Amino acid sequence: MNRIGIIGAMDVEIERICQNISGIILHQVCGLDFLEGFLMETPVVVVRSGVGKVNAALCAQLLITKFKITHLINTGVAGAMTSGLGVLDMVISTEVMYHDVDATNWGYESCTVPGMNRTFPADSSMVKLATDACKKNFPSKLCIQGLIASGDQFIGSNEMKEKIKSLCNPACVEMEGAAIGHVAFVNRIPFVVIRCMSDMADDNGETTARFNEKEGANISAHIVCTMVEALGSH
Ligand code: ADE
Asked: Is the Cα torsion angle 229, 215, 83, 162 positive or negative in sign?
């Protein structure tokens, strides 16, 4: 039986999901609240990780080791990077990577953790289910599949945006997906990152993100709910 782990960094990113969970059992581990229950009749464990790569990695490993999840989903908002992608559009990860890792002086490729692959591939069936769920719920919304890059920085300047584009040219940036993909990959757990654009990761990024965060987080969460229903029936 599938058991889906769901990670959102902030309360607003998991709120809509938690409202739809039945039979909740609360587990507190490492100061984190893991909500175990059923979402659309599918067994799930949902956690608010907190922001950033280490918080996300900690939750991913706990979900795998302690809660025995079979699939991992990361939901939330992100900053749009690729041209044509706008605020409240969607990105579904085909792969994830770090934009803030630099061991180039040591002879490694940019954005690459020594000894690891540069990118971590998302599970193609989960990518398809997430894309189908987006098209079903939001038929007029732009939903693209692409590379998601993560780092421990909110990207809110044109200068940083251009730098990241030149490093790895991602579809969007956020602060957790690559850490979750990294942990899922080494544990051989299928994963996907689902992100709604709250901002353009540019000079207006912080203001735009604050304005769109709730709506974006709810759109992404809605897609997760539909996707989980499909995963449960697989
Ligand atoms: N999450 C939402 N917008 C973001 C941005 N511009 N940079 C990093 N994480 C984000």
From this structure: negative
Indicate which residues carry an active-site annotation: 13, 199
Which atom of ligand 1 is least distant from the CA of 174? Answer: 9
Residue of 125, 124, 123, 102 whose CA lies nearest to 112: 102
- Ligand 1 pocket test, pick from 173, 194, 203, 211 with the greatest ligand atom count within 8 Å of Cβ, gives 173
Distance 213 CA to ligand 1 centre (A): 10
* Residue 121: count of CB within 10 angstroms of its CB: 16
- Using one digit for the tens of pLDDT, what is the confidence trace for 178-200? 999 999 999 999 999 999 999 99
Q: What is the pLDDT of residues 51-65, one digit of tens each?
A: 999 999 999 999 999
Cβ of residue 208 lying under 6 Å from some atom of ligand 1: no
Which residues lie below 8 Å from residue 147, measured CB to CB, with a gap of 6+?
93, 94, 95, 96, 97, 119, 168, 169, 170, 171
What pLDDT is attached to residue 232? 82
Q: Is 209 in the pocket of ligand 1 (CB under 6 A)?
A: yes
Per-residue model confidence (pLDDT) at position 105: 97
Question: In the predicted model, what is the mean pLDDT of residues 135-160?
Answer: 97
Q: Tokens 């289910």 sit at which residue?
A: 129
Q: Whole-prediction pTM value?
A: 0.98
Residue 77 CB–ligand 1 contact under 6 Å: yes
